[in-house]
Design brief:
Layout (H helix, E strand, L loop, with lengths): L1 H15 L27 H5 L6 E9 L6 H14 L6 E8 L9 H11 L8 E9 L14 E5 L2 E5 H6 L9 H16 L52 H9 L4
The structure holds zinc ion (2 copies).
Length: about 260
């Protein structure tokens, strides 16, 4: 029983943190015509520093009524306040949207969903980020190997919220708030340019086996590709934090 749970935990981590098949970082095609259509990580410095954009607006879009625990949103807000220099504030807006297409999502469909529904865009001294919480799984999910979230443009995240709920809150599973917070913070940290994704490395800590992830065990951006179970979420008693090397990268690029 115990071994089975560990197996599930590892599958979750592998999928949520990306591989060739289920990457949680997707570089968008090279459309630089619009401020929100750039590659993942391209706005890292703009998010971290306060000089060009001293304010952040995060638009949370809930598809067909699915939504996170309020505590998880509070935790994400605290994480952003700790890391980003936004002296004029970090504001969240929430809105329900509807979508009836298909039983699962491709990343192209997620992009289309954003294009059809996003209303908050970067302007003046405000940088905007869109987070879509979808109620159907990613097309690449297989068994317990699932995608929990993807950073797919410079200011765009998708969270596979029904999948996050399916793998949390039950017996032998992490609490829902712990798993939600871990996934939201991890994906947002990719927008901040971690690891080596628009925010330059200050030390060699990118995982050689997993682009854009950290090789420090226990770090929020850690990716375990073989064997070990350090980030065993079934035993998760606290939300993973960024380690000192990831923090140093953010600080050198204008973050806190
Ligand atoms: Zn990742
Ligand atoms: Zn790290």
């Amino acid at each position: 029983m115990k071994i089975k749970l560990v197996g599930i935990a590892l599958a979750l981590i592998l999928a949520s943190c990306g591989s060739d098949d289920t990457s949680d970082v997707v570089d968008s095609p090279g459309n630089n015509g619009s401020a929100n259509l750039r590659n993942t990580g391209a706005s890292a410095e703009e998010l971290l520093r306060g000089n060009t954009f001293n304010q952040l607006e995060v638009e949370l879009l809930y598809v067909n009524g699915i939504r996170p625990e309020a505590s998880s949103i509070d935790n994400l807000k605290s994480f952003l306040q700790q890391r980003l220099n936004k002296p004029s504030g970090i504001n969240f807006t929430e809105r329900n949207i509807t979508d009836d297409t298909g039983a699962e999502y491709t990343i192209e469909e997620v992009r289309n969903l954003e294009d059809a529904n996003r209303t908050s865009y970067t302007r003046d001294n405000t940088i905007a980020v869109s987070v879509i919480f979808v109620d159907k799984p990613n097309e690449k999910d297989e068994g317990n190997s699932v995608v929990l979230g993807t950073a797919y443009r410079n200011t765009s995240l998708v969270i596979y919220q029904n999948t996050v709920e399916r793998f949390s809150g039950g017996v032998g599973q992490p609490s829902r708030v712990d798993l939600e917070t871990t996934v939201y913070n991890h994906e947002f940290a990719h927008l901040m340019g971690l690891v080596n994704l628009g925010t330059p490395l200050q030390s060699a800590h990118e995982d050689a086996n997993s682009d854009n992830h950290c090789n420090v065990e226990g770090c929020l951006m850690f990716f375990e590709i073989n064997g070990g179970n350090v980030l065993n979420m079934m035993n998760m008693t606290s939300i993973p934090q960024l380690d000192s090397q990831c923090l140093a990268d953010l600080q050198a690029n204008g973050g806190k």
